[in-house]
Amino acid sequence: xxxxxxxxxxxxxxxxxxxxxDVVTKAELIDYSSVRGCMxxxxxxxxxxxxxxxxxxxxxxxxxxxxxxxxLFIPESLLQKEKxxxxxxxxxxxxxxxGGEEELTERLCVRPTSEVLFGEHYKNIIHSYRDLPKLxxxxxxxxxxxxxxxxxxxxxxxxxxEGHTCHETDEEAHDETVRMLNVYASLCEDVLAVPVVxxxxxxxxxxxxxxxxxxxxxxxxxGKALQAGTSHHLGDGFAKALGIEFTNREGQLQHVxxxxxxxxxxxxxxxxxxxxxxxxxxxxxxxxxxxxxxxPIAQHKEGVLDFAHDLKNRLSDxxxxxxxxxxxxxxxxxxxxxxxxxxxxxxxxxRDIGNKQVVLVRRDTGEKLTVLINELEIKIKETxxxxxxxxxxxxxxxxxxxxxxxxxxxxxKEILDTDQxxxxxxxxxxxxxxxxxxEETGATSRCMPFEQEELSEECVxxxxxxKHLVYWAKAY
Amino acid sequence: xxxxxxxxxxxxxxxxxxxxxDVVTKAELIDYSSVRGCMxxxxxxxxxxxxxxxxxxxxxxxxxxxxxxxxLFIPESLLQKEKxxxxxxxxxxxxxxxGGEEELTERLCVRPTSEVLFGEHYKNIIHSYRDLPKLxxxxxxxxxxxxxxxxxxxxxxxxxxEGHTCHETDEEAHDETVRMLNVYASLCEDVLAVPVVxxxxxxxxxxxxxxxxxxxxxxxxxGKALQAGTSHHLGDGFAKALGIEFTNREGQLQHVxxxxxxxxxxxxxxxxxxxxxxxxxxxxxxxxxxxxxxxPIAQHKEGVLDFAHDLKNRLSDxxxxxxxxxxxxxxxxxxxxxxxxxxxxxxxxxRDIGNKQVVLVRRDTGEKLTVLINELEIKIKETxxxxxxxxxxxxxxxxxxxxxxxxxxxxxKEILDTDQxxxxxxxxxxxxxxxxxxEETGATSRCMPFEQEELSEECVxxxxxxKHLVYWAKAY
Lengths: 476, 476
What we know:
The structure is a homodimer of 476-residue chains. With 476 residues, chain A is an alpha+beta fold. In chain A, 35% of the residues lie in helices and 27% in strands. At the A-B interface, strand 2, helix 2, strand 3, strand 4 and strand 5 of A face strand 2, helix 2, strand 3, strand 4 and strand 5 of B. Strand 5 of chain A pairs antiparallel with strand 5 of chain B. Chains A, B: One of its GO terms (biological process) is prolyl-tRNA aminoacylation. Chains A, B: One of its GO terms (cellular component) is cytoplasm.
């Protein structure tokens, strides 16, 4: 049966997890498959990813990087070369043991990330400081054998880009690590309207094999944090393990300094949980596959459909425009496209045509604007810009409201019991305290923000001399 | 050491296979990795694929298709549902048997193609004729466990797009099969300047599980054929195996009619072997990552480099423009960019600047055009168009020269002994003759062309009544 009604979604406050599942399935972003933990990205979900990908790919190219493509498989012996790396990833990789009818002499893992493949290639092509820097990126699928999965947020297979770069000096690698974190932050804030906190991961939470990891952390509607992107300074650990050497300006052999950085389909989950509401999805105009949806009113009346189709053709030069000329009721259509999170609805009926006007309706505020036809393009652009900005502002305010400070562990627990969110608290730098906080509260260290404050001189957990301000939260 | 000289490549006539290997490595399209049979696509190789992908993706979307993304893995039981399909693919799939530390209860194959995954999803989302047609496509990596591999032409993992569609009727599926074959043919001829023969595969050569397979076949410089793209009418075989049913306009349950069609990174191999020469690669302007390369002459003289950089900025609005301002000799640069197949070189030196002119040099003919600066954009565009057209014409003529007719098997063998190429010959339609021709000559049936001729009434092999004209050739 074709759907003749808009299916109801669970309210966010009743059951946030169910709300999320309802939204991703009923807005037709994904479908499940018989492959455990893998999702199908349906046309609407994939179109969102394509728009995010295009926006990020432009930024990656503008900052001087080139796209390449590495193999899907990694021989076990190659993965084992960097000891921290294999320890970090071994528990969660998928192993290919047979090709065709034959058992392989060495098993291959399906890449969980491609540091060692890039490293092996870099060893081949880098010989002199003149070959540096090398600034490569790839768009690929990767696999991590997760026990529990949720669409976009945690799936066995996911899509991402992974940048891998080589540099002459530690400072250059550091600058690159910062540059790409800023690219991710700008994508989140300026394109996805998702505010982020920039900072450094603790030793415990850094990438397996990295010198240090920078991260951007975002906060969802339910007060849980989500890591939106990471950028790692790898130092020369992989270079030493894999033998990536170059003749430096002084004529001496030296190992390269490396970075890697990744951004995944997970961000779609963040976008949903930051902007969505009880009516469904809400997609930021800059990446919405359809920015304006035309809904004809009383479309059986002469001239309405022709007029609406003409409008669609005309607007398609300026914004991504859809039209629903099906014989469903306008009210059904309104609900459907609100659920799909289309930022702007355009209503046009017989009376509007006579008055040379149409009505624009904002997805967020419900505000109705009556607009003269000859001002339409400019008004639509203005309104989309306003929606985009307002989305960011609302998200930033919500995050602010959900960010608290704690001076000791009982305060910390109290806050988490009342209302989930970021907790800013001082930390001594000891892993024991980090572990204890996680054990007692369920919150993990999200990052040591670049913008440090000194809330007190004592660690929130042990009371000893504090070293860092840390953002803590329960997290996806 | 950085390279200070252009490395020599083997001559095509001396050793075509070695010439090919030299070109793909020395023009820096690919590198080998420690993963058997998988290649690394380097920035230049991947940029070519990105341009091909963008051109094809536009055509796929213009013809009403939507992109989706399916899982990488297929459970063994799902792959087995269509019997011909599993028989065709089982010998060449990679099997995942372990996830993390655990052995899987059911092994997963790494997708060699995704008919069954699409089928399973279609079963979920198609219920009524109102849900049809469904026109989906995905860009993905697939794996086929090949014994012998060559970069682009045959690799364990390759990149491709695979379209999968569902229709109400056999005719609609047929029309779609033809439509997408034409899309592929137009991409090959109009964008890649590679002429193709359109036709149908024999029963023996069709896709495992298809009703019939249409193909476009191209001819390489060495006279071997290469299958450039295929489009399959699947009938209702997969629909019956997987239970994809819909309520038709008469209110009865019916299985959908399906198609699938694919186009891969292999086409880059075809482009190389159709257009390349002893100086190296030659890339059609429409997909060349760099269309015009600026080489400053006597660049140490005052003003030359500034002028050249200004030109680059100015031209970058119109064509993909590169500049080599390194301190290598101009002669080195000429050779390097000829090897990389950049269609047009722009030379500019002190005298040119005085005369307000530059020199354009065509990669194919070596022809030099002195062009006034104020006519530059228009002349470059004209010249690129002329190069693109001439590339197609040269390839078409070469194919014509290498296409012969045979009336009996001794003629057939004689032709192949003298000069590789397409052989047009009549066929009775029997698999025995097809097998015998392959055994005795090494040539396989490439296709029964849509444009049939009757060369004789007798099968080239058995002499019985002929049914079809067939193009035969040794093939990649």
